[in-house]
Design goal:
single chain, 8-stranded mixed sheet, 2 domains, Rossmann fold, alpha/beta, globular, 9 helices, Hypothetical Protein, Haloacid Dehalogenase-like Hydrolase, Chain: A, domain 2, 34% helix
Amino acid sequence: MIKLVATDIDGTILSDKKHFTEGVRNCIKELEGKCVKVVLVTGRMYAAARLIAEELGLNTPVVSYQGGLIKKSFKNTETLYQRCIPSEDAEQIICWARRNKIHLNLYCNDILYVEKDNDIIKKYTTHQNINYEVLSFDDIKLENINKLMAIDYQCPDNIDHWVKDMGNKMTHLYVIKSTPWFCEFSTKDATKACAVNFLREYWELKENEILTIGDQDNDIELLKAGDISVAMGNATDELKKYADYITDTVDNDGFVKAMEKFILGVKE
């Protein structure tokens, strides 16, 4: 019996239209009514993820930064789990980005910093509904770095190159493509799998009581942590390799259809 649903947000329960369907909202309420815990597991910063949890009325822990930070809920900001990037690694990534003129987001103590106020950060923060600060990274004490993220909205091929190149150079870090435009850096113990495994022990659940669902390559670790692993119909080809089941797309309520199949008992 599934007792925990660990779900990605963007592309899984939230489409590009940036609203939740009534199907998703009602499904989550139905899951909670059956005492199934629904947990958001996202690459978003906590400041952004908590808004989603609040909108959906979820009082479960919020997993942000790919698994690098777990807060008790959107109401209770008590930290249950946190893993940060060492300062020397942050410095190396910053130097790499400056040398190659790459836009870099730096997240420190759940505050988003950039060195230049440009169209890239405006587009990103508008999409995420969050604020940011413009400041030289040299003026930031590189402690409690939640993650760093390189962005290129113009040439997605660069993301694949950066993930491969920096992943080979910094093998002790978790370097992942989270969308076609984002290359993210965190630690090896700041993955979605680490977060789900933490929550499994936190709630004393069994491995076969967990369902995970996502759509992007950064959800590979998420799917690995579920006894039942589901990829969205709009998922990347790579992610689909790790799925037990491929559901419909986010625009066609694929999340709802997966919950009906595996938990709610609705026949296809």
